[in-house]
Amino acid sequence: MIRQDYTRIDPKRRSTLDHKKKQFATPTYKQQEYPHRLNIYEIPPTAEITLEQFEQWAIDRLRILAEIEACSFRNKTPAETAAHITPLLQNWLPLHSNTSSSAGSQDESLKLERQKDHYSHYILRLAFSLTEDLRRRFARIENSLFKLRFQNDDTRERQAFVESLKLDWEIVSEEERRALGADLMNATPGLKRQEIEEGGWFKVDFETVPELVEGRRVYLKAGKAYVPVREQMSIVVAGFNTKLDKGLELAARALPRLDEDERLTPILNHLSKNFATPDSTLADSDSALPGASINAFSIDPLSQHFPLCMRNLHMTLRKNSHLKHFGRLQYTLFLKGIGLTLEDCLIFWRQAFKLITDDTFNKEYRYNVRHAYGDVGGDAIRRGRGYSPFSCQKILTEHPPGSGESHGCPYRHFSVENLTTLLQTTGVNDKDLLRGVKEDVENKRFHIACNRVFEWAHKGEIKRVKEDGTWGAADLDTIVHPNTYFKRSYLLTTGERRGDEMEM
After folding, report:
1. What per-residue confidence (pLDDT) applies to 2?
2. Is the backbone of residue 202 left (phi > 0), alpha (psi -120 to 50) or beta?
């Protein structure tokens, strides 16, 4: 037997702690302080939070990131993106400055806001560090969010935050600034001589500010870029990107250890899947439409407001007088979500299945409709009033249609040729729009393609509600649920005032 020498220190162990006592050591957690509104997310959070907070905080942040990505896909300008995202941030991820409270950074509500921002970032960092594609997308969108917040921050607080970072830059001396005055003016467009003489300048490695170099907005000499104070955002954002990329690599290495925790792994997997399109659920208030007559006999005229997935199911049902199981389930839950009662839904399906007898319908189909509404089934089904209408994320990722089936998302499950034919059947003939939809589908931006069609079909109504101020940016955010599509289309077309649409 080989005698083991316990006096040697294993290089993989911490030398500050006896390896015999390591497993019994009590971990010490430091409560995070948030003196600044902005955060570069360099220090991981260590305090305890509930599982509900873990999931809900991540979902709220995911909403924001999805909207930012949608804005970039639609080629919105930075100003348009800021106008669209700012009200959504106030609703889902508020982050107020120290001057908004008399207690400053010690205000408990500010601490909670900053804690939510801190934790939600790290939760999504774990969820999206699985693959290189997810890490790249996450870093790009987080960079946009950080840049938006940096630009909107209070001037004094922003400067205090920048000073706290201790970034690797060198202040240009007054003598060097005077010596290079002419070169700095020529290489920095829009900069006045007074700003060159009185303003501050930083000297950094040119590869840390690729945006400024690409735009020819800085003077380069001996591998250094001379950056004016007004362009310090580029340096800060570059530092943020560098730290985030390293953090994502570390998170990817730590992921295998989380497989042992059965509580967190399902949540993280769910979040990473939702990065394609955020999941959403239908609120109880969403089934009510002011002045709408929704019954078994009004579905045909109302179908003009349906999204393409439901319109395809409706047209197939009218053509064949039949739908297979998953098509019936998807369509039944959608009709339930728009406010169709169980009694009217049974009437609708019975009339639609006109090629079979009453006895066959009652034996083979009636129970499934009642079960979807929660009228029959187990206690949990009845207490929950049946199943919720399917979101876009659920339709995209679960139960892909097979031969002879009509459910699913046409943007996801149809060929480009069949999708184009279906869109033209519903009245979409604009060549530029069809070209944009094709590009979205080829790049797997299925919900963006659907939103593109919606905005084209309602461009006049959207322009009207924006001009008269009855709808804000938050009211026209990206649609991620078929029932939201229907309700928004109905309200825009009829001119009714909108209420709260969806809760994600």
Report:
1. 47
2. beta
* Closest-CA residue to 137 (of 37, 257, 244): 244
Mean pLDDT of the region 124-139: 88
Measured between alpha carbons, how far is 467 from 205 in angstroms, rounded to an integer?
A: 47
Task: Report the C-alpha gap between 434 and 416 in whole angstroms.
Answer: 10
15: Cβ contacts below 8 Å, ≥ 6 apart: 9
CA distances from 91 to 60, 61, 87, 337 (A): 9, 11, 7, 24
Q: Give the integer Cα–Cα distance in Å for 218 and 169.
A: 15
pLDDT > 90 in the chain, percent: 40
CA distance 396 to 50: 30
Picking from 109, 225, 83, 94, the residue whose alpha carbon sits closest to that of residue 168 is: 225
Give dist(CA 205, CA 115) in Å, integer.
33
pLDDT at 253: 86
**Tell me, what amino acid is at 24?**
F
More confident residue, 49 or 209: 49
Beta-bridge partners for 297: none
The residue to which tokens 């149809």 are assigned: 414
Q: For the chain, how long is the longest CA-to-CA vector?
A: 96
Instruction: Give the torsion sign (CA, 443, 447, 452, 453).
Output: positive
User: Alpha-carbon distance 381 to 374, whole Å?
Assistant: 5
Angle between helices 325-337 and 342-352 (to 10 degrees): 140
Element (H, E) at 299: helix 299-302
Characterize the bridge pairing of strands 201-205 and 170-171.
antiparallel
